[in-house]
Amino acid sequence: TTKREQRNSVRAFSDDLRTAADLRLALETEMRKALEQGEFELFYQPVIEYPHGGILGAEALIRWRHPKRGLLAPGEFIPLAEECGLIVEIGEWGLKTACAQMAYWIRNGVAPDAVAVNLSGISFRHVRLLAAVRNALAGSGLPPERLELEMTESVLMSDVELTNEILAELKRMGVRLMVDDFGTGYSSLAYLKRFPIDVLKIDRSFVQDLAREGSDAAITSAVMAMAQELGLDVVAEGVETEAQALALARRGCKAMQGFLYSRPVPSQQFIAWCGQWLNG
Ligand code: C2E
Ligand code: MG
Ligand code: MG
Ligand code: MG
Is the pTM higher than 0.90? Predict the structure, then answer.
């Protein structure tokens, strides 16, 4: 290669870098604007008690109604929001919005037992977390026991001393604490026992194969046995078939979340679904 070719390829390389950086900056600016203009929305998915059908909870799952790109799933923007730090504000918005929505449902007489909000690791460890939860509860008047917070195993295990302090403070406030995607991380049993956790959510990868006998059934049975030992509730996520629900129920798991009942849907549609589910 000649000097000139080299120079050109170096220039092309830095152009690419700049384009990538520009793109991220553009997206970051766009996300900030989206937050101000109300383009984020919470969808809700029910957690159902098997077999009676009580509505144990509603998980709030964020969406971005992008003016040009349509409805975006969290996987398409949460990672970038985490990188640029905007996740803290998005998380506070989520807490506030979910609590207000739930308080509204209670006032109107049809409501799930609780609403669950997902916390990213950055939000969980942020100094403003406790104030954000307190403000969301105070601002909405929602009783704390009707708010659930979901954190993944890896978030909880990444600094167990700090985790324990944060969880203890949250527990003191009276909210319910859940371990999300349980089984995919590397929880140490010793810590699980120490943490003031209320609920394990079995990851959907274990539920998927459950109707057949095999290792996933063994994992689910082991999780159930452990949960019972530690006095924890268990929710199964990603329940898509009646056979999976039955297999879970046989192993003692009675709280089901998944497409078998409902996909995550906008709040209006969610509460209409609840009305039909309970009376229809
Ligand atoms: P997650 O908390 O484990 O949520 C469950 C995911 O499984 C949701 O994907 C839901 O739509 C999907 N799901 C539910 N039932 C079924 C089923 O029967 N089959 C299958 N195949 N999938 C099912 P979604 O809404 O795309 O959310 C993905 C992840 O994004 C969530 O996983 C959560 O980690 C994160 N997330 C969602 N909302 C928020 C938020 O407000 N804040 C933060 N920090 N993270 C969020
Ligand atoms: Mg979750
Ligand atoms: Mg999950
Ligand atoms: Mg999951």
Answer: yes
261 SS3 class = coil
Contact 151, 124 (CB under 8 A): yes
pLDDT 10s digits, 152-172: 999 999 999 999 999 999 999
Among 258, 251, 261, 259, which Cα is nearest to 237's? 258
Ligand 1 pocket, residue 82 CB under 6 Å:
no
C-alpha to C-alpha distances, 177 to 6, 49, 72, 96, 142, nearest whole angstrom: 57, 19, 27, 17, 16
47 CB near ligand 1 (under 6 Å)? no
> Would the CB of 262 count as within 6 Å of ligand 1?
no
3-state secondary structure (DSSP) of residue 108: coil
Q: Whose CA is nearest to atom 30 of ligand 1?
A: 74
For the stretch 40-96, pLDDT in tens is 999 999 999 999 999 999 999 999 999 999 999 999 999 999 998 999 999 999 999
What is the Å distance from ligand 4's center to 85 Cα? 22
